[in-house]
Amino acid sequence: MSKTVLTLLLLVIFSGILLSTDFFISSTEQPYIFGDFNGWQPIKMEKAAGSWWYAEIELKPGIYHYYLSTESGKRITDPFKNHQSEGTDILNIIEVKNPTDFSGISEGDFSFKIWDRDYFNPVKPGEFFITFPVVERLFNSTFLIFNGKKIKMNLLRNYDGYDYFRVHLQDIEKLNFYFEFSKGDKKLYFGANGLSDSTVTSFSISQEDLPVDYFDTPEWSKGALYYQIFPERFANGDPENDPEDSQNWYADPKNVNLGSNGFFGGDLQGVLNHLDYLEGLGIDAVYFNPIFESPSSHKYDTADYLKVDDNFGDYNLLKKLVSELNSMGKKVILDGVFNHTGDEFWAFQDVKEKGKESAYFDWYFVKGNKPRKYKGHAMNYIAWGGYGDMPKLNVLNPEVIAYINTILEKYNNAGIAGWRLDVAGEIKPEFWRSHFRPTLKELNKNALIVGEIWGDAKVYLQGDLFDSIMNYQFRDAVIEYVARAGHSARKFVNMTDYYLKRYPPQVLTSLWNMLDSHDTERFLTTVYSNEKLFKIAVGLQMTFIGSPVIYYGDEVGMTGGKDPDNRRPMPWKEELWNKSILNYYKKLITLRKEHPALSRGDYSVISTSNSLLVYKREMGNDVLVIIANPGDKAERLSGITGNHKELLTGEILEMEGLSIPPESFMIFEAANE
Ligand SMILES: [Ca+2]
Ligand SMILES: [Ca+2]
Known about the structure:
Layout: H1 3-15, E1 19-26, E2 31-35, E3 43-44, E4 46-47, E5 52-59, E6 62-70, E7 75-76, E8 82-86, E9 89-96, E10 120-124, E11 127-135, E12 141-146, E13 149-152, E14 154-159, E15 162-169, E16 175-183, E17 186-191, E18 194-196, E19 203-205, E20 226-229, H2 231-234, H3 268-273, H4 275-281, E21 285-288, E22 292-293, E23 304-308, H5 315-327, E24 331-336, H6 346-354, E25 373-374, E26 377-378, H7 398-413, E27 418-421, H8 429-443, E28 448-451, E29 468-471, H9 472-483, H10 489-500, E30 512-514, H11 523-526, H12 531-543, E31 547-551, H13 579-594, H14 596-600, E32 602-609, E33 612-619, E34 622-629, E35 635-636, E36 643-646, E37 652-654, E38 659-660, E39 664-670
Parallel strand pairs: 20-21, 20-31, 21-24, 24-27, 27-28, 28-29, 29-30, 30-31
Antiparallel strand pairs: 1-5, 2-3, 2-6, 4-5, 6-7, 6-9, 8-9, 10-11, 11-15, 12-13, 12-16, 14-15, 16-17, 16-19, 17-18, 22-23, 25-26, 32-33, 33-34, 34-39, 35-38, 36-37, 36-39
Helix pairs in contact: 7-8, 9-10, 9-12, 12-13
């Protein structure tokens, strides 16, 4: 390509600026847009929630005419845009203006996508979040004009050149709104007809028919405190059901097999025997790693989903355990491994035996006839991590869907409150969206769905897939802040803000905040058994926004490296417990119970400086200030004055200029004067 041609091409591209223009209507049938912008060729609209449809069309500035029509030829007038009569028909008119045509605007695009939860986020009837991103520092202020009332929008965050403004609306009856921006004495409006300096059309929508579905997490899950039990290693309550060659519970971990084929005899009766212990801790829910029949100690290779593993007990014992926990006000979450089955699962056994002749051949992804393994690896079929013993299940096969439905029903009948979903990101979202979630919520609308998602989980938390996730991002931030030499409070805030300010706000108190799990080393090991640093991490876990998940034994000071060393048997001889750590957990858990702000309150950062982190949890009159300093130098507090009571020690301290010792953690509430 010659230079001249390239220059000409670039000129053509840049002279015609394209502006994304939004269209949305309510229609019972699929609508199409016909406009003079593309020679009246139909443009198919996309389905939103309720009876709503939308389209985003890139248009050059100009005036356009268009109309909407359904497949059956019914013409619809777009109620949000101007229209004029054209003979017997009505045509809509839209003027697409370059934002720079408005005085005072130098750049930027304006958009409020009413079909997208990022902008319009219905929690429940009467409760909504409305968020508007505008090019940074463009205006002095941004208002929401809501049912005629002017509400100042708060700056949520500045990210990637945009200021995100948000309003939390509660107890509202009608949805009728537009936005007002001001700069000096100039005003601009953004409504359903786009950007304007004069006439604005409101977004006017019925709460009964929204373009985005209502989405909230189960009430019980907001700020709930979990205890994670790896059943083979928690407690052995019944020696009769121990696997052969079970090892000594108290043997030196270095001299035993902690791996997938090493057993100790832990079981459900063991949990039943320690209900008082769980009650004493004050947890709200138990999350069990898999309990279904399987040959391994971890049981992520299911042999039979409808049977509790014989080394753990049976279905009736599970039912008894769940009912006892429920009667103590504690919920039970089971581990659902639906991405793959184990080798011993009857359907896979049948495929291995009969190949293509098997009635279950389409339950898996086998190329050729019979599945083949080589040195443990799957040769001609899809398997988790390539492990031949974990063949991937075809969850979109209607027979598999029906089978999984029977699993959900059976354990719902046992009284469980939800599922943690193993490797949830490896399963097609369609399965969760169209099958798993609707089926489970139909059985129990308060059931909780938690995905095992290690990284950013925004797409999974939009209301159609999961209610919560295993929030390893919280763990990453705590490790960076508490365990790494930099101890940067700013970094902790940046890492947590990254998800806190992007996820729908209604999920935040339900996120599973973990320090560790059956898949990571134990946190006490991460900090090289530095008890002070460990206590700071636990303090953060118990006071940060979200739902803490305690991995069994962390609370008595268990250590352990990477899997399987992190799965050691829980010691039940009290002389083996670290009482100082246990008492610290109990103290924090008691504070969580006494102060609803810690479990369900708003979270905001007060300040960060070097290794000093100061944040606030707030719910009504319950206001707590949390201060952490994992660094090796004392840091001076600033910006807070007056006497406050420190809740871990009971001391009353003057906050002004208070010196925060190295490796310390404190929780303050304003002292009663
Ligand atoms: Ca046993
Ligand atoms: Ca077994």
